[in-house]
Amino acid sequence: MRPVTEREIRASFVNCSKGEAQRVGLPGDLDDRPWEDLDFLGWRDPGARERAYLVAERDGGLVGIALRAAGGAFRTFTARSMCSLCFTTHTSGGVVLMTARRTGQAGRQGNSVGQYVCADLSCSLYIRGKKTATAGRGLDESLPVAEKIARTRGKLEGFLDQLTG
């Protein structure tokens, strides 16, 4: 992903109002992000942990979505969950259900779409081996990293299609 600015991020949101986009708590480390290793920019709101945001390149522009992390029941350390985008396995809350309001009339009527994703939205780093999940190894598979990246991008495209379609 190419580096993006605060202005570009705020202008990219498709499922919230301009006022809501202006109030989004942005990450303080935009200049330090490993942009060359990111398929999308994802972060949790520093002021409200139940809020999360994702910005991806799509059709030559940026698409930003506001997400809400569902509060789940406490799980033991041995319970494992898998991210539906990158297939990384995590323990104890490392995967959460993130829901996003759909765009257009459907969103105004309260319709939303959800995905189980890495709680820290670091899917790109997990599939490249730059970050390790608390469960240790990810899914034991023989796919090369390039194919894992393509699969993750495809899953993200499908999620964005559900939101905007």
Condensed summary:
Helices cover 25% and strands 25% of the residues.
Outline the structure in words.
This protein is an alpha+beta fold and 165 residues long. 25% of the residues lie in helices and 25% in strands. The chain has helices at residues 6-12, 18-22, 104-108, 123-127, 145-164, and strands spanning 41-44, 51-58, 61-69, 80-82, 89-91, 95-101, 112-118. The strands form two sheets. It has a five-stranded antiparallel beta sheet with strand order 1-2-3-6-7. A two-stranded antiparallel sheet has the order 4-5. A hairpin with a 6-residue loop joins strand 1 (41-44) and strand 2. The radius of gyration is 15 Å and the shape is globular. The two termini are 24 Å apart. The mean pLDDT is 90.
Largest sheet: 5 strands, antiparallel
Give the strand content: 15-25%
Shape: globular
Order of helices and strands: HHEEEEEEHEHH
**SS content category:** alpha+beta
- Determine the N-to-C terminus distance: 24 Å
Mean pLDDT: 90
Rg result: 15 Å
Total beta-strand segments? 7
| Percent helix range | 25-40%
Low-confidence stretches: none
Tell me the number of helical segments per DSSP (H or I, 4 or more residues long): 5
- The largest sheet has its strands arranged as 1-2-3-6-7
